[in-house]
Structure formats: structure tokens, C-alpha cells
Automatic annotation (TrEMBL):
Pfam families: Lactamase_B_2. InterPro entries: Metallo-B-lactamas, RibonucZ/Hydroxyglut_hydro, UPF0173_UPF0282_UlaG_hydrolase. This is MBL fold metallo-hydrolase. It comes from the Bacteria. Counteracts the endogenous Pycsar antiviral defense system. Phosphodiesterase that enables metal-dependent hydrolysis of host cyclic nucleotide Pycsar defense signals such as cCMP and cUMP. Residues 20-213 form the Metallo-beta-lactamase domain. Keywords: Hydrolase. It comes from Paenibacillus gansuensis. It catalyses: 3',5'-cyclic UMP + H2O = UMP + H(+); 3',5'-cyclic CMP + H2O = CMP + H(+).
Length: 250
């Protein structure tokens, strides 16, 4: 199993001979508007794609955690193969059908495709009222008997339910969206560097990968900040912080 970080939350998980595209934001730098309800007026993304658009013609399936524009944008909707299998949370199924995808499966609890098991984990994007404003979000445990398991956590804050998921599944690897993204009043709507340390302390056997940094304007914690934070605490070993385009062997 390999994990290729593309940009922001966009990634490719290669498992059991299949390439699964996760949360595709494929627009060029500056093609998308500022994130609403935040303090930033910069257009997005802040960085270009590290691979050509033709790269995404090779995908076997699409896995979507939720459909905010930095996880599924108009460029992705326009260029991706509408015949490939798409897996999503139930709340996004109708939208994807209306967008022209012909093979959409809403995962309520679990689903198996080509020997790959996907189990959906309900998430929480923010505390309090902000969670309703941002809408539903999901994570997924993706696994095979031979390759092991990876937890795609998605845009989730740290909650007891997330902790319980780690305890129950004991994933071999976990991908954490950890840019400390903030809304107008300072509400944190993703995980933080402290959450990485907390997860690593509780579940030292799970390999951690930190993504969702440097590409979107309301994500205030950069890769250089996270690396510095971990280095100062002599914790560089607890989480990989991949560059755009980097491939990690799981």
C-alpha cells in the first residue's frame, strides 16, 4: 500500500492494485474563491498541482469525505471519468449523481470493492453550532487482509469518538488533516499539532501522516510550523509531513 499526497486533502491511496483518488481539488492556483466565514480574502488554492491533470485519468475509484470545495471542486467535477466508482457518505450521493457520476455508492457503515474494505466513520468538522454550519463529514478505514489498514480521518476535530475509532480498529496508518483551520471567531475546525501528539501517545503503533497544509487560505498552521513544533519537542519521528506530490510507503 502506498499513499501519495497531492495537495491539501487530495491524495491517492494505492491498495490491492487499485488507485483510489481521495478528495480531489484540481483547480490551478487562484482559480477558487476565498473560504467563506474566515478572516482571509485570498483566492485559493495557494499552490499549483504537483502533477499534470492527465495523472488523474489513471484513477480506478474516487473516495469523498465531504464536498466542501477544497475537497471536491468544479475542475474535478469537469474532468474526472464519470464512469468510475465513487464512494461517499449518504448525504453526498444525490449531489454526485446530479453531477453526472454514474456509479455512486453511499457507504452507510461498510462496503467491499475489489477486495478492499471501506468502513465509514462519522466525523465532526467543528464544535457547537459551527458543526451544523459546515455540514456532515466522514472518515474511512480502508483495509485489505494483506495490505493492512489506513484511517483517512478527514476534516474532523479531535473527539472521544475519534479516539474510540483508533482503539477499536488499531489502524496501521492514519492520515490527519492538521492545519488548525479557523473560522471568523477563531473556531478551530480541523485537528491541531497537539492532537497529533495526543494520538501518537495513545496509539504509538499507528503511523501518522499530517496533510491539508499550505494550500488553503484559512489553514493557519503550515508544514514548516508543524515540523518546527515537532522538532522542538524531539518528536520528529511521530508524524510524516509530506510535500505536495510525495509518495509514502505504508
Amino acid at each position: 500500500m502506498t499513499f501519495q499526497h497531492i495537495r491539501n486533502a487530495t491524495s491517492v491511496l494505492n491498495v490491492n492494485g487499485k488507485s483510489i483518488l481521495i478528495d480531489p481539488m484540481l483547480s490551478d492556483a487562484g482559480e477558487l474563491p476565498p473560504v467563506p466565514f474566515t478572516r482571509s480574502f485570498r483566492r485559493n488554492p495557494l499552490t499549483p498541482l504537483p502533477v499534470p491533470l492527465q495523472f488523474f485519468e489513471q484513477m480506478d475509484a474516487l473516495l469523498l469525505t465531504h464536498r466542501h470545495f477544497d475537497h471536491l471542486d468544479k475542475r474535478a467535477l469537469s474532468i474526472l471519468n464519470k464512469k468510475m466508482p465513487v464512494f461517499c457518505q449518504p448525504e453526498d450521493q444525490a449531489f454526485l449523481h446530479n453531477a453526472g457520476f454514474l456509479n455512486v455508492t453511499a457507504i452507510d457503515q461498510s462496503y467491499e470493492w475489489c477486495g478492499i474494505r471501506m468502513e465509514r466513520i462519522k466525523g465532526r468538522h467543528a464544535p457547537g453550532f459551527a458543526a451544523k454550519l459546515l455540514g456532515p463529514v466522514s472518515g474511512y478505514i480502508v483495509s485489505t487482509p494483506g495490505d493492512g489498514s489506513v484511517y483517512i480521518v478527514g476534516d474532523c476535530i479531535y473527539t472521544p469518538a475519534i479516539e474510540e475509532t483508533f482503539r477499536e480498529y488499531e489502524p496501521d496508518a492514519a492520515v490527519l488533516n492538521t492545519p488548525r483551520a479557523q473560522m471568523l471567531l477563531g473556531t478551530i475546525i480541523t485537528m491541531t499539532a497537539d492532537d497529533i501528539v495526543r494520538i501518537a501517545d495513545l496509539f504509538p503503533s499507528t503511523r501518522l501522516i499530517a496533510v491539508h497544509m499550505d494550500a488553503i487560505s484559512h489553514c493557519t498552521f503550515k508544514r514548516r510550523h508543524l515540523r518546527s513544533y515537532l522538532k522542538e519537542r524531539r518528536l520528529e519521528h511521530i508524524a510524516a509531513v509530506p510535500e505536495d506530490g510525495e509518495v509514502i510507503l505504508l
